[in-house]
Specification:
The protein has 8 helices and 4 strands. The protein is of the alpha+beta class. It has 2 domains: about 100 residues, Peroxidase, domain 1, CATH 1.10.520.20; about 70 residues. A hairpin with a 2-residue loop joins strand 3 and strand 4. Helix 1 crosses helix 6, helix 2 crosses helix 3 and helix 2 packs antiparallel against helix 6. The chain is elongated. It starts with a helix and ends in a 7-residue tail after the last helix.
């Protein structure tokens, strides 16, 4: 998290807490982040020093005017006026992270070999909950290279219960084994 992104995100969060608009703006910032991340052209336009701020503002207004709260639109306008529009993607991500901290939530990244069913989701949520006292929000990804099992990351802690990890562990144990069969 860059210092600039953190400062702008923190200021916006403080304002939203004061105005009781955290939930609405959190949705807006999530949408903004996803849009910028999903559009390479939009990211290039925002970071381009050649394109003038008023044109950037027109583009952002066209894209988001109908779906965003007034405070979010004013915030984006302020960022563009200050020449900080290149940081909008990072600010929106930082804002989402700060909202999680404010709500005492932690993001648990779950990677599985196959899509999870509800029973698996509950079991993994219980395993992740044992790592922290905060509320857990799960993001799921599928990675067939795991062969089976799962990997859960909560903050800086990781629980690796994948078959791929067990195979690596067995290979390591066999390579360290100095057993020589007697002839």
């Amino acid at each position: 998290m860059s210092r600039i992104a953190y400062r702008y995100a923190k200021s916006l969060l403080d304002l939203c807490i004061e105005r009781n608009e955290v939930d609405a703006v959190a949705l807006n910032m999530s949408e903004l982040h996803a849009t910028i991340r999903g559009s390479h052209e939009l990211g290039l336009m925002l970071s381009s020093p050649v394109i003038k701020g008023d044109l950037k503002w027109k583009v952002m207004t066209t894209l988001f005017e109908k779906s965003m709260e007034e405070v979010t639109m004013k915030f984006m306008h302020l960022m563009i006026e200050k020449g900080r529009e290149a940081f909008l993607k990072d600010v929106s991500k930082s804002f989402t992270d700060l909202v999680r901290i404010h709500r005492n939530q932690v993001l648990a990244d779950v990677v599985t070999a196959v899509p999870m069913n509800e029973e698996s989701r509950k079991a993994i949520l219980a395993a992740a909950q044992s790592l922290t006292s905060a509320q857990i929000e799960i993001t799921e990804r599928v990675d067939p290279t795991l062969v089976g099992g799962f990997v859960v990351r909560v903050g800086d802690q990781q629980l690796d219960a994948s078959i791929a990890q067990k195979i690596k562990q067995l290979k390591r144990e066999f390579s360290e084994n100095e057993y020589v069969p007697g002839i």
